Amino acid sequence: MLATYLIGLREGLEATLVVTILVAFLVKADRKDRLPQVWAGVAAAVALSVGFGALLSYTSTTLLRDYDQRELFEAITSILAVAFVTWMIFWMRRAARSIAGDLRGKLADALAVGSIAVAVMAFLAVVREGLETSLIFYSAVQGAGVDGGPLYALLGGIASAVLLGYLMYATAVRINLTVFFTVTGVLLILVAAGILKYGVHDLQESGVLPGLNTLAYDISGTLDPSAWYTALVTGIFNITPTASVVEALAWVAFAVPVLFLFLRPTGSRPAAVPTTPASSPQP
């Protein structure tokens, strides 16, 4: 649940900041008449993202009845989710300085074209975050059971992100977003490493990779499955009571170099995104 809350918080805040930049631009430009088109585009992006998540679940549970096919499908989606998470984290760090200006420029161009263009622009600005969230969430909860806990955690993270975005937009609340995105980036890398480990396990279950029963460790006798720390470690790091050698190698081979590249100094580190979205846009 903690992992899915983090996914909802991180992705939700990125989408919320995009929306606040668009809204603030229209307010500053005295074009509030175009706000309904922005909200329509946002709503369409949310609907498509929810539909995509439902399609993933339906494909796994209904369309794929063969066990090996289902395991292979889950493995592929897990690997894709890891690729999207990694790309998103590094893209945000690289493009953060210019994202607000790019959004304002695209919205200005859309205003010159018409209302449909505004809605499409808002849709495209938000839908990427939504599709990423659906894919990452689906992959993160494959081993979490069938209860609604992970979904509630995801919705809680999104709600928290919306609240933070509103507070930054409408009040004097300020958050150091550079620190926020750095910390959540590190945690998401660890979540992604766990998703990759699970994907490798599915590849072994489906027979694509060998070594399912060649264990790297077995701590089932010492790890209390009912303890809170067990749930925390399992949820974030996906350190299960047993793991094959291939799973453990995949976790380390991903987490160590990606964390190194993400945390190494890059000279003048850019700000994550504008911390005052209500006042930064210019008409």
TrEMBL record:
One Pfam family per UniProt: FTR1
InterPro entries noted in UniProt: FTR1/Fip1/EfeU
Molecular functions per Gene Ontology: ferrous iron transmembrane transporter activity
Swiss-Prot/TrEMBL keywords: Membrane, Transmembrane, Transmembrane helix
Primary location recorded for the protein, binned into one broad class: membrane
TM region positions: 6-27, 39-60, 72-90, 110-131, 151-170, 177-200, 242-263
Annotated localization: Membrane
Record-level GO cellular component terms: high-affinity iron permease complex
Keyword Secreted in record: no
Domain of life: Bacteria
Membrane topology: Multi-pass membrane protein
Family in the record: Belongs to the oxidase-dependent Fe transporter (OFeT) (TC 9.A.10.1) family.
PANTHER family named in the record: IRON TRANSPORTER FTH1, PLASMA MEMBRANE IRON PERMEASE
Protein name: High-affinity iron transporter
Organism name: Actinoplanes digitatis
